[in-house]
Amino acid sequence: MHSLRAEYRPQTTIALGDAPNDIKMIEACDLGVIIANSHRAPLPTLAGEAEGRIVRTGQAGPVGWNRAMMDMLAQLDLI
Fold it and tell me: Whole-model pTM?
């Protein structure tokens, strides 16, 4: 995430994930989404959740990913 931000200098970064290996990426972005995953224990509370920078989906897989992205795009006034 840090390398991509340095190289491309995006206005806003969004990361989505559902596993422990996604935690650092989600916490390093501007907006993060933890996708529900009924096949594993939920991720612990992440830095950024209390202020709403990181949110959790109620739906798993592609449905949760799509809903989260549509919500983020609307929040950024991109749709």
Answer: 0.87
Return the SS3 of 47.
coil
C-alpha to C-alpha distances, 35 to 7, 10, 40, 64, 74, nearest whole angstrom: 27, 23, 11, 6, 18
Cα–Cα–Cα angle for 8, 11, 12, rounded to 5 degrees: 105
* Residues, the chain: 79
Tell me the C-alpha distance between 78 and 41, whole Å: 33
- CA 76 – CA 63 distance, rounded (Å): 20
Q: How does pLDDT run across 39-74, given as a tens digit for each residue?
A: 999 999 999 999 999 999 999 999 999 999 999 889
